[in-house]
Amino acid sequence: MLALQHATECRILCARQTRKDGTVVYDEAYLASLEQAVRAALPVWSLSPGTDLRLLCISENATYLAEDPEAGTRLVLRVHRPGYHSEDEIRSELAWIGDLRASGAVQTPAPVPTRGGDPVCRLDVGGVTRHAVAFEHVPGRTPDETDDLPAWFRVLGGVTARIHAHARAWKRPPGFQRKVWDFTTMLGERGHWGQWRDGLGLDGPGTALLERATTVIRERLARYGTGPDRFGLVHADLRLANLLVDQDALRVIDFDDCGFSWYAYDFAAAISFFEHDPIVPALLDAWVEGYRAVAPLAPEDVAEIQTFMVLRRILLIAWVASHAETPTAQAMGVPYTEAAYPLAEAYLSSHANGRHG
Question: Which is the CATH superfamily of the domain at 149-350?
Fold first, then answer.
């Protein structure tokens, strides 16, 4: 179950890392300047100078825990990665979270506005504007291999069904903007997370195999379609690291990747980084059972989940390559790429050489 440990761990990296264009993303000096900017902004959220600030995680964003002993306040501060989301996209995410909370569809931490009532704070980090948002701190821990994961996935299925029902019924506010997660923006030339062909350790035969798999994925999704019953606003990142369990409660955090995609894709995202683990079929059965206890889920939707699982795995190969400075990407490395090959082979075989089924 080592993959599950990797799926949930989030250590702090202090080695210099750069993008392909030579831009330094996160290193010790940059993290120091980022922390300085966050500390300077603490009064914006009515936090005292004595607030303890601790870096929790580096992924797309840098996430901090701010504990103010003077006021007894605990906030989670998220500083957005430059060049990923626009300010309008961030505000749209927070708008959806607010309405999800108001409707009772999901338990998720409340966004905390600044003293001036703005949900988004702008930070100057080395002359570059970074956007920061705050959330209430809630109790809970990330589920792992010591838990009864099928039982939690049954709960997650019901939670996911309620999120989807809300998304279908919600009248989005004017100017609502979130990314579209379709084949083109995941595995195509306009990939939000770069190109999977840049994956760590990809060799000629491996590339050829994944090329065949992506061709089948594209063809099957074209047939499956993007009708309103299948495609809409989703969380898009319900992986273990974004779930908190507290006794019998399951909370969902981090809607940072929420956008427009296939509803069934939300299961594939939930098994991120351990798609090849033998426990996955049991998790799928539990998730489907939990989902259908709340809302309908057509057999053809369930039948296509394998497509989304392989799509997500190949997408994450691109993510690992384009986010090499993050602890999660470094934990995955070349073995994560290599473990995708049997998944792709099984996928192609299960669909009659990839064309039918």
Answer: Aminoglycoside phosphotransferase (APH), C-terminal lobe (3.90.1200.10)
